[in-house]
Amino acid sequence: MTQSYFSESSPSQFLSDAIRERFGVEVSAQFLRIFTRESHRLGHGAADDFAQLILAEAMQEPVVNNEDDLLRILRRVRQRLYRLAVSRHSQNTELSQISSSHTSDPVTAAMMSEALECLTPEEMLLFHEAFLESTPRPEIAQIFDISRATLYRRLEDLTAKLRRYLEMD
Description:
Elements: H1 11-23, H2 29-42, H3 46-60, H4 67-91, H5 94-101, H6 106-117, H7 121-132, H8 137-144, H9 148-168
Helix pairs in contact: 1-3, 2-3, 2-4, 3-4, 4-7, 5-6, 8-9
């Protein structure tokens, strides 16, 4: 069982209070909604650590004046955590589990596993969000902090890269 750093209050309440106290900025419902959603995605007990990372990142900023600054910090921390999670997943056997869960043919599963291993951590995160989690495209664009047009181009490039790799063998 994970012990909370935030004795009585929830991580979102602690973060909200700490930001208000330290920077004089009120945390919006949008910020708290994103924080809660991302904490849930990161897994059980991640909210405490996520709140601590956001607060630490905010304290390193020269100026935090408004909600836009807070959202930028939240997105930056979220991207780092996702990249870390993706690089850890690529080091584990999850890639072979992903490929084998979508096909009963062991040869195809092995080829797919090899193809996924050639992806960069960012490409793996994109693949995971777009094709395994079925995250809505606008949300993925927000996670990566890119335009939708750029996202669609990257998805096309990613599928072309996987297709080339699979056709090569």
